[in-house]
Design goal:
- This protein is of the alpha/beta class.
- It has one domain: Phosphoglycerate mutase-like (Rossmann fold, 3-Layer(aba) Sandwich).
- The chain is 25% helix and 17% strand.
- Helix 1 runs parallel beside helix 2 and helix 3 packs across helix 4.
- The protein is globular.
- The termini are far apart.
- The relative contact order is 0.24.
Length: 224
Amino acid sequence: MVATTIHLLRHGEVHNPEGVLYGRLPGYHLSERGHAMARMVADHLAGATDVTSATPGAPRDVVAVVASPLQRAQETAAPIAAAFGLAVGTDQRLIEAGNHFQGMTFGVGDGSLRHPNHWPYLRNPFRPSWGEPYRDQVDRMLAAVDTAREAARGHEAVLVSHQLPVWVTRLALEGRRLWHDPRRRQCSVASLTSLVFEDDRLVRISYTQPAAALLPGASTVAGA
């Protein structure tokens, strides 16, 4: 059997002092801590550190690094690609989910939810009605995974994406319902959701946080 691993990496922390739901808007880059997170992931994958023991580990067999076209994903991918002597590829299918509330603060009080004209977008949380359907996100993400798996067959690839697309993809692969409580997502900034295949069969999903030491106080704005 041929073993192939596809790592779905959520980008690092973003500089977002206004606390808006930035979605697919251009110009949102990694914070200083976000860049440090990206370097920690690169070190982890290259064998400089082991997430479980903080000691040198075996380097991963990464032969491809592909990212969402958004700046925060490209910046997260850069040190990983450099660590393996690779160029960063771009795949539109890894982009953040579309969202009606993009560019707004989301909440009551001074947030967008105080305005009745936004309320119809909340009518169906199962689809969801405020943005790109969960199923559509899963379909495009799995298509990107299949492309990467063919390109990296027998090796490993890193795909840098965003919290919601990564999380609903994991839910789908685990046979769970796609609608969920956002507060219960296991997909922190700079985390790895790793899909292990034997030939074309998915045999294992694992989750690691190489930059866990930098997580306290990290941004948790929904849709990041």
